[in-house]
Amino acid sequence: MIFQLFLVAALHLPSTTGFGNALFQKAPSAQQKAPTRTPDRVEIELPDFDELFSRVQQVSPLAKVAIESANDVAGYTAGFGEIEENPNLKWKKVDSSKNKFGVHKVEKIDNFQGVGVPILRFRATLEGPCIGEGFANFIMNTEDRKKWDSQIDSVYEAYPILDLDAANIAMGFKYGDCSRLGVGHCVTKANLGIDAREQLTVCGINDFADGSCIIWGTEMESWHDNLLPPGKRVTRAKSHIFSTTLVPTSENTMDVEYVLQLEIGGKIPNWMTSPIIVDNVKKLFRCAGDFYNNKDGELDNFLAEKALVQSDL
Prior knowledge:
Blueprint: E1 33-35, E2 43-45, H1 49-59, H2 61-68, E3 92-96, E4 102-109, E5 119-127, H3 132-140, H4 142-145, E6 152-160, H5 164-171, E7 177-188, E8 197-207, E9 213-219, E10 235-236, E11 238-250, E12 253-263, H6 270-292, H7 298-312
Parallel strand pairs: 8-10
Antiparallel strand pairs: 1-2, 3-4, 4-5, 5-12, 6-7, 7-8, 8-9, 9-11, 11-12
Helix pairs in contact: 1-2
InterPro entries: START-like_dom_sf, START_lipid_transfer
Organism: Cylindrotheca closterium
Signal peptide: 1-18
């Protein structure tokens, strides 16, 4: 997937009754760019990050907690105990559970922002150390993604951004430390008469001093289609907004808020797709729970590999 960079001024929160400016400006001169680590050093247009993180904070109160606590390194936050709901957004309950760990609330807003598809929000508590990169792998790594998403064919980071230091400087460190940034391509399999889907998404991982993390993403625009890999095109799905916020509430627990507005594309009605998305995301959280609980040594292996990579740098 992909990760970020954009010259940001002061934190700008547009009216909570609707999103503000477009994330991408079609005029080339209006868009910040960043070079990639690909051999041809492709330059990637980047979204307006003030607008992006404004949107994330409107739909994810836990992300707002993480951003506002960005420089707080002492102790832990109360996680969901600190959130303040946006009064202008009317979420409807889809599902709930009294289980201590795992997904305990699923909500949605139908036809959010008038784009014809609902936005879904999942709240969960997980047991284990708050390591955002481990959760991100379940979304961005094909083998980890297959553990919960049976329809995934491939997902990979097609255009990793070259200079994260420049990204952090350009962002003014207002949204944490950008530890990964790039453009990713994702393809799902055809199944039961439904054709394959593909996405081209700019995504990032932003880490905070208190151990919190925001994993975010949004779909590239049609004028970025030159970044798609060669080959036959399939139906385009579109993530209007995606964020996962992990906030540590103790040394070994975290609250997690996962927000997704996914347009499947084609003629599939929302009443068919939303239950599938809910079921898949619950599977994702079960896999993440096993990972953070170190089932079969998964967490130990991840930390060992991460330490090895760090030693090679």
